[in-house]
Design brief:
Layout: E1 8-12, H1 23-26, E2 33-34, E3 37-38, H2 39-49, E4 54-59, H3 63-71, E5 79-84, H4 90-100, E6 110-114, E7 117-121, H5 124-132, E8 137-143, E9 152-155, E10 161-165, E11 177-178, E12 182-185, H6 187-190, H7 200-210, E13 214-218, E14 221-225, H8 229-240, E15 245-246, E16 251-252, E17 257-263, E18 268-269, E19 274-281, E20 285-286, E21 291-293, E22 296-299, E23 302-303, E24 308-310, E25 313-316
Parallel strand pairs: 1-4, 1-6, 4-5, 8-13, 15-17, 16-18, 17-19, 18-20, 19-21, 19-22, 20-23, 21-24, 22-25
Antiparallel strand pairs: 2-3, 6-12, 7-14, 8-11, 8-12, 9-10
Helix pairs in contact: 4-7
């Protein structure tokens, strides 16, 4: 049996991001700014590279921020739609709600990508497996970088998922894989999800596993979780190297000293300041003589005159 490839992608971006607080109090985790775009743009670009031409993104927490973040993504020829949620529907319930709104078409599989991490991957092995097999759901998997930190998936004969285990030391002979937030969901599986708050394992993975139709395909690439403020700052610094990036809407005084710094939209860096290995974005300000080191300032936040901020995460909604 040969299935058609996904024509629609769903990017999951509705979570509250509690581990990301206080940054997620000001900006939804998928909308956090990075040099070159928002976090969610990584998932959107990946879907486009997979050949998808319609992308649905759900949102719940600070929906206006998510709408603005997606408005910054320029994708000629791509239909990009929001699926706002009045109550948080969960990773499976959000799919069902978008389905019932007619946003996911009425046939064919759907490519599903988590919108709160950084993904750069070749999805073709996952797409090929789903197209040529009997999977209800096909997971994209990567060799596990740290089994003690994230759940581990292991495969049995024929590329079927044999189990999904809690973080821990792999068993003898086990080759663990990590699920980086990539899957193809068949129409048959999609149609069984109730439009009520529910999560992916209960409503999508475990039923497919019980039928022996939860598949896995190893994909090549790079994945970074953006789960905590420290993860976010680490990701920004990795993108920057030793460089500085200043958004065109930001104001930076000539005497300001910036090293491995990202100054985002509408932020203001005043005279005789020092910004080192830090993010100042979403309208934050650093006043005269202040120092910001290994820190993140987002939103209606100000480093006062002469203040020194080291290894702090400060955020406040800008509107």
């Amino acid at each position: 049996m040969t299935a058609e490839p996904p024509r629609i992608a769903m990017v999951l971006a509705a979570g509250r991001g509690l581990r990301m607080r206080p940054l997620s109090d000001a900006v939804p985790k998928p909308a956090l700014p990075l040099p070159g775009g928002r976090v969610v743009a990584s998932a959107v670009r990946l879907a486009v590279a997979a050949g998808v031409r319609r992308i649905v993104v759900n949102c719940w927490h600070l929906p206006d921020h998510m709408r603005c973040a997606l408005g910054e993504v320029t994708l000629p020829g791509i239909d990009l739609e929001l699926s706002p949620e009045r109550e948080l529907m969960g990773t499976a319930g959000g799919l069902a709600l978008a389905r019932d709104r007619g946003l996911l078409d009425d046939r064919g599989p759907v490519l599903v990508i988590n919108g709160d991490g950084l993904l750069d991957s070749t999805l073709q092995p996952m797409l090929d497996r789903h197209a040529s097999g009997e999977d209800l759901v096909t997971l994209g998997l990567m060799p596990h970088p740290d089994p003690s930190r994230w759940s581990r998936v292991y495969l049995g004969p024929g590329g079927l998922v044999a189990g999904i285990l809690a973080p821990g030391i792999p068993r003898s002979g086990e080759r663990p894989f990590v699920y980086p937030g990539l899957m193809v969901v068949s129409r048959q599986a999609l149609d069984t999800i109730p439009a009520t708050p529910c999560e992916t394992p209960d409503r999508i993975w475990w039923p497919a596993l019980a039928e022996g139709r939860l598949g896995g395909a190893v994909v090549a690439g790079d994945w970074r979780e953006i789960g905590t403020p420290e993860d976010y700052l680490s990701a920004v610094l990795r993108l920057l190297g030793a460089e500085r990036v200043v958004d065109p809407t930001a104001e930076v005084a000539r005497s300001a000293r910036l090293r491995a710094a990202y100054v985002g939209r509408h932020s203001r860096i005043h005279e005789d300041t020092e910004i080192t290995e830090s993010v100042v974005a979403e309208g934050a300000a650093v006043r005269e003589g202040a120092r910001v080191v290994r820190s993140v300032l987002l939103g209606a936040i100000e480093a006062s005159v002469g203040e020194t901020i080291i290894e702090e995460m400060r955020a406040s909604p800008s509107c």
